[in-house]
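Key result, reporting period 2: structure in, sequence out.
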């Protein structure tokens, strides 16, 4: 049996430790924090969306998204559910195939995984920051205080740069860069977007349900229905987070990026036009800001009027063309995306260790013998919906299967 050192007790590190220990290996996990899996408490809004019923390689991104295929085929939805059921977590499916523990508590995942690892005899060393790896002779992990630990294999599971206060601050990239790995430049994913000329800034905090489309000129390339949150920096909400990765990739490629918001999903554009026309005829004495109350969220109205560059005049004086423009804009509010919040605000890091340098079937480094790399640290990011944690589990499984 082998002695395996794991750097990082996050999602992928703890999963690997359990699977390796079940095979009888000796497993020593170093974690810089005082406890394991700190980030997990924040996942899925504290409920931990730990997988998705529909796991496809198309939910993953990076320079080579097909890299995930073999690992998610061997450890797909059924295998993940079996694993969690076996350690006492019953699954609950909510919207869009998202799977949570039935307790709806992310802490359940941490508790049951840690109990399982401890029962098996995995050794955890907390408050233990690994500052260097050395493969000159036997694989060696070197602690912040220069203490050295030897193993037969080292697994690096230090995560990306998202939510730095959880311990994953990107130092893992440097650990691996020093031994010859290369890094695809990183940016946040599943993150809030910044907007140009944001007339909606003043309604910071207002949330409305609606459709969001990522646009390529007049073509809708992605569609989401969710709450939309207007903020002082731009726009957020589950649908925005979902399309953010693609929007940022386009920004990075120096493309103009526009989103379209449908502020009133319940009426088609022609229905809305007819309704506004008759409403404005019946209430012709009202100002525009008054006449729209009851049709769209009243907090949005003054920003919409500003966006349309209209005077707040009585609606009896509005031409058919203007009424058409108003209904068109309510259904297709075009907003230019100019940026995104920082890596610490994102839920995942896009980019990371180049997947060209890792074997997709085993997660073994092609650069350094006896080294494995798992989880978010590599140039793979998943959609919002349980795909990132699924990648942590699946990549850990691929590596654990390989170590003999
Ligand atoms: C707010 C938020 C919500 C999210 N919600 C979801 C969700 O609902 N569903 C989903 O699928 N994904 C979600 N994610 C993403 C998911 O949590 C991550 O993709 C996943 O945790 C990555 O696992 P990992 O093992 O690669 O890294 P991490 O879980 O980040 O773990 C890395 C560990 O390594 C430790 N470490 C780092 N460097 C060192 C070092 N040098 N020495 C020792 N230890 C070190 C860190 O302290 C950390 O504990 C969310 C992320 C965030 C930030």
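The corresponding designed sequence is given below.
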């Amino acid at each position: 049996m082998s002695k395996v050192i794991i750097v990082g007790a996050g999602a992928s590190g703890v999963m690997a430790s359990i699977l390796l220990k079940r095979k009888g290996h000796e497993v020593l996990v170093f974690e810089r924090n005082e406890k394991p899996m700190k980030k997990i408490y924040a996942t899925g809004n504290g409920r931990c969306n730990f997988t998705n019923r529909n796991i496809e390689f198309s939910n993953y991104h990076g320079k080579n998204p097909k890299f995930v295929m073999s690992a998610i085929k061997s450890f797909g939805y059924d295998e993940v559910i079996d694993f969690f059921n076996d350690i006492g977590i019953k699954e609950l499916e909510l919207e869009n195939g998202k799977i949570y523990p039935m307790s709806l508590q992310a802490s359940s995942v941490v508790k049951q995984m840690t109990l399982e690892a401890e029962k098996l005899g995995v050794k955890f060393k907390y408050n233990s920051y690994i500052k260097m790896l050395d493969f000159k002779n036997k694989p060696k992990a070197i602690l912040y205080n220069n203490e050295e630990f030897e193993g037969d294999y080292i697994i690096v599971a230090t995560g990306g740069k998202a939510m730095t206060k959880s311990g994953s601050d990107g130092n893992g990239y440097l650990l691996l860069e020093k031994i010859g790995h290369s890094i695809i430049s990183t940016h946040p994913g599943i993150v809030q977007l910044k907007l140009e000329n944001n007339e909606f800034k003043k309604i910071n905090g207002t949330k409305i349900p609606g459709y969001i489309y990522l646009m390529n000129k007049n073509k809708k390339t992605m569609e989401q229905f969710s709450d939309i949150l207007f903020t002082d920096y731009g726009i957020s909400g589950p649908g925005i987070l979902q399309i953010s990765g693609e929007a940022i990739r386009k920004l990075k490629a120096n493309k103009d990026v526009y989103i379209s918001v449908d502020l009133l999903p319940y009426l088609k554009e022609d229905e809305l036009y007819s309704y506004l026309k008759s409403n404005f005829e019946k209430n012709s004495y009202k100002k525009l800001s008054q006449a729209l109350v009851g049709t769209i969220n009243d907090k949005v109205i003054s920003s919409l009027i500003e966006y349309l560059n209209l005077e707040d005049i009585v609606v009896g004086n509005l031409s058919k063309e203007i009424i058409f423009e108003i209904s068109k804009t309510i259904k297709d509010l075009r907003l230019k995306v100019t940026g995104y919040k920082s890596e610490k605000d994102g839920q995942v890091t896009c980019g990371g260790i180049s997947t060209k340098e890792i074997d997709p079937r085993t997660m073994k480094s092609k650069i350094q013998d006896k080294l494995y790399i798992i989880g978010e640290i590599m140039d793979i990011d998943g959609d919002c919906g349980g795909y990132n944690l699924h990648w942590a589990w699946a990549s850990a499984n691929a590596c654990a299967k390989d170590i003999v």
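The chain has three domains: 3-188+348-402, 193-264, 269-333. Residues 7-13, 30-33, 38-39, 42-44, 48-49, 129-130, 157-159, 162-163, 166-168, 171-172, 347-348, 375-377, 386-389, 392 surround flavin-adenine dinucleotide (CB under 6 Å). This case is discussed further under Risks and Mitigation.
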